[in-house]
Amino acid sequence: MISPDLTLILGPQTRLGMALNTAVRENREAIGALGVDVYPSRFGDKAIRDVLDGAAPDGIKDALSIGAGRPVVLTATKGLATPAGTVRSREILPDAEAYLAAWSHLVGHIETRVVLRIDPLPDFLFAMNHDAANAAVQATPWDALYESSWADVLTEIADALPRASILALSTRGAFLSAETA
Fold it and tell me: How far apart are CA 8 and CA 56, in angstroms?
Protein backbone atom coordinates (compact mmCIF):
# COMPACT_ATOMS: atom_id res chain seq x y z
CA MET A 1 0.00 0.00 0.00
CA ILE A 2 1.21 3.47 -0.87
CA SER A 3 1.56 5.91 2.00
CA PRO A 4 0.29 8.54 2.72
CA ASP A 5 -3.47 8.22 2.37
CA LEU A 6 -3.73 11.24 0.06
CA THR A 7 -1.30 12.71 -2.43
CA LEU A 8 -2.31 16.20 -3.57
CA ILE A 9 -0.55 17.25 -6.76
CA LEU A 10 -1.17 20.99 -6.75
CA GLY A 11 -0.73 23.70 -9.36
CA PRO A 12 0.15 26.09 -10.61
CA GLN A 13 -0.30 25.54 -14.31
CA THR A 14 3.35 25.19 -15.17
CA ARG A 15 4.87 23.21 -18.02
CA LEU A 16 5.83 20.49 -15.55
CA GLY A 17 2.45 20.67 -13.84
CA MET A 18 0.52 20.13 -17.03
CA ALA A 19 2.79 17.23 -18.03
CA LEU A 20 2.35 15.58 -14.64
CA ASN A 21 -1.43 16.04 -14.76
CA THR A 22 -1.49 14.47 -18.23
CA ALA A 23 0.59 11.52 -17.02
CA VAL A 24 -1.78 10.93 -14.09
CA ARG A 25 -4.87 11.24 -16.29
CA GLU A 26 -3.52 8.96 -19.05
CA ASN A 27 -2.36 6.31 -16.56
CA ARG A 28 -5.41 6.42 -14.29
CA GLU A 29 -6.46 2.81 -15.00
CA ALA A 30 -2.96 1.36 -14.54
CA ILE A 31 -2.48 3.25 -11.29
CA GLY A 32 -5.96 2.16 -10.17
CA ALA A 33 -5.00 -1.46 -10.79
CA LEU A 34 -2.29 -0.96 -8.15
CA GLY A 35 -4.94 -0.12 -5.56
CA VAL A 36 -4.78 3.66 -5.80
CA ASP A 37 -7.79 5.86 -6.59
CA VAL A 38 -6.78 8.58 -9.06
CA TYR A 39 -8.65 11.82 -9.70
CA PRO A 40 -7.31 14.13 -12.43
CA SER A 41 -7.37 17.89 -12.28
CA ARG A 42 -10.87 18.41 -13.64
CA PHE A 43 -12.14 16.72 -10.44
CA GLY A 44 -9.58 18.25 -8.08
CA ASP A 45 -10.12 21.76 -9.38
CA LYS A 46 -13.88 21.42 -8.92
CA ALA A 47 -13.42 19.98 -5.42
CA ILE A 48 -11.32 22.90 -4.21
CA ARG A 49 -13.62 25.41 -5.93
CA ASP A 50 -16.62 23.85 -4.12
CA VAL A 51 -14.86 24.17 -0.76
CA LEU A 52 -13.87 27.79 -1.50
CA ASP A 53 -17.48 28.52 -2.46
CA GLY A 54 -18.71 27.12 0.86
CA ALA A 55 -19.95 23.71 -0.29
CA ALA A 56 -19.87 20.95 2.33
CA PRO A 57 -16.54 19.09 2.14
CA ASP A 58 -18.00 15.82 3.44
CA GLY A 59 -19.48 15.01 0.03
CA ILE A 60 -16.11 15.58 -1.55
CA LYS A 61 -14.42 13.33 1.00
CA ASP A 62 -16.99 10.62 0.28
CA ALA A 63 -16.51 11.02 -3.45
CA LEU A 64 -12.76 10.68 -3.06
CA SER A 65 -13.18 7.66 -0.76
CA ILE A 66 -10.58 9.17 1.56
CA GLY A 67 -10.23 6.99 4.59
CA ALA A 68 -11.75 3.97 2.82
CA GLY A 69 -8.50 2.01 2.93
CA ARG A 70 -7.27 2.89 -0.57
CA PRO A 71 -4.74 5.65 -1.13
CA VAL A 72 -5.91 8.57 -3.27
CA VAL A 73 -4.01 10.71 -5.77
CA LEU A 74 -5.72 14.00 -6.60
CA THR A 75 -4.31 16.52 -9.06
CA ALA A 76 -5.45 20.14 -9.14
CA THR A 77 -3.75 22.42 -11.65
CA LYS A 78 -5.76 25.29 -10.17
CA GLY A 79 -5.16 24.06 -6.63
CA LEU A 80 -3.41 27.24 -5.53
CA ALA A 81 -4.79 29.84 -7.95
CA THR A 82 -6.67 30.33 -11.16
CA PRO A 83 -4.49 31.33 -14.12
CA ALA A 84 -5.80 34.90 -13.84
CA GLY A 85 -4.88 34.98 -10.13
CA THR A 86 -1.33 33.75 -10.51
CA VAL A 87 0.34 37.16 -10.12
CA ARG A 88 -1.22 40.13 -8.34
CA SER A 89 -0.21 42.84 -5.93
CA ARG A 90 3.51 42.21 -6.45
CA GLU A 91 3.15 38.57 -5.40
CA ILE A 92 3.01 35.16 -7.06
CA LEU A 93 0.01 33.05 -6.09
CA PRO A 94 -1.43 35.76 -3.81
CA ASP A 95 -4.56 33.71 -3.06
CA ALA A 96 -2.63 30.58 -2.10
CA GLU A 97 -3.38 31.10 1.60
CA ALA A 98 -7.14 31.00 0.97
CA TYR A 99 -6.78 27.93 -1.23
CA LEU A 100 -4.57 26.23 1.34
CA ALA A 101 -7.03 27.01 4.14
CA ALA A 102 -9.68 25.26 2.06
CA TRP A 103 -7.38 22.28 1.47
CA SER A 104 -6.65 22.18 5.21
CA HIS A 105 -10.36 22.11 5.95
CA LEU A 106 -10.80 19.31 3.43
CA VAL A 107 -7.81 17.10 4.28
CA GLY A 108 -6.32 18.43 7.53
CA HIS A 109 -6.85 15.17 9.45
CA ILE A 110 -5.69 12.87 6.63
CA GLU A 111 -2.08 11.78 6.20
CA THR A 112 -1.17 13.83 3.16
CA ARG A 113 1.71 14.43 0.81
CA VAL A 114 1.58 17.68 -1.16
CA VAL A 115 3.38 17.68 -4.49
CA LEU A 116 4.06 21.18 -5.81
CA ARG A 117 5.06 21.39 -9.43
CA ILE A 118 7.26 24.39 -10.03
CA ASP A 119 9.24 25.84 -12.89
CA PRO A 120 12.05 28.36 -12.48
CA LEU A 121 10.28 31.71 -11.99
CA PRO A 122 11.47 33.28 -15.26
CA ASP A 123 10.24 30.23 -17.19
CA PHE A 124 7.00 30.24 -15.23
CA LEU A 125 6.32 33.92 -15.82
CA PHE A 126 7.22 33.88 -19.50
CA ALA A 127 5.30 30.68 -20.23
CA MET A 128 1.94 31.91 -18.96
CA ASN A 129 -0.61 31.22 -21.66
CA HIS A 130 -3.44 33.27 -20.26
CA ASP A 131 -4.20 36.89 -21.18
CA ALA A 132 -5.10 38.02 -17.65
CA ALA A 133 -2.02 36.34 -16.17
CA ASN A 134 0.23 37.90 -18.81
CA ALA A 135 -1.27 41.33 -18.13
CA ALA A 136 -0.68 40.89 -14.39
CA VAL A 137 2.95 39.90 -14.94
CA GLN A 138 3.50 42.85 -17.26
CA ALA A 139 1.95 45.23 -14.70
CA THR A 140 4.20 43.98 -11.89
CA PRO A 141 7.59 45.67 -11.48
CA TRP A 142 10.51 43.33 -12.10
CA ASP A 143 11.98 44.08 -8.68
CA ALA A 144 8.83 42.64 -7.10
CA LEU A 145 8.96 39.58 -9.35
CA TYR A 146 12.66 39.21 -8.59
CA GLU A 147 11.86 39.08 -4.86
CA SER A 148 9.14 36.47 -5.41
CA SER A 149 10.07 32.97 -4.41
CA TRP A 150 8.66 29.47 -4.49
CA ALA A 151 10.04 29.23 -0.96
CA ASP A 152 7.26 31.59 0.15
CA VAL A 153 4.67 29.26 -1.37
CA LEU A 154 6.29 26.22 0.26
CA THR A 155 6.21 28.02 3.62
CA GLU A 156 2.50 28.76 3.17
CA ILE A 157 1.85 25.08 2.40
CA ALA A 158 3.81 24.00 5.50
CA ASP A 159 1.89 26.48 7.65
CA ALA A 160 -1.54 25.47 6.31
CA LEU A 161 -0.89 21.71 6.31
CA PRO A 162 1.64 21.18 9.11
CA ARG A 163 1.21 17.38 9.15
CA ALA A 164 1.76 17.01 5.40
CA SER A 165 5.02 16.06 3.76
CA ILE A 166 5.90 18.29 0.82
CA LEU A 167 7.53 17.22 -2.42
CA ALA A 168 8.61 20.09 -4.67
CA LEU A 169 9.24 18.96 -8.25
CA SER A 170 11.14 21.10 -10.69
CA THR A 171 12.71 20.58 -14.08
CA ARG A 172 16.00 21.04 -12.22
CA GLY A 173 15.43 18.64 -9.32
CA ALA A 174 13.21 17.68 -6.43
CA PHE A 175 12.97 18.36 -2.70
CA LEU A 176 11.13 16.27 -0.12
CA SER A 177 10.45 17.95 3.20
CA ALA A 178 11.36 16.30 6.46
CA GLU A 179 8.45 14.88 8.39
CA THR A 180 6.81 17.60 10.43
CA ALA A 181 4.44 15.48 12.49
Answer: 19
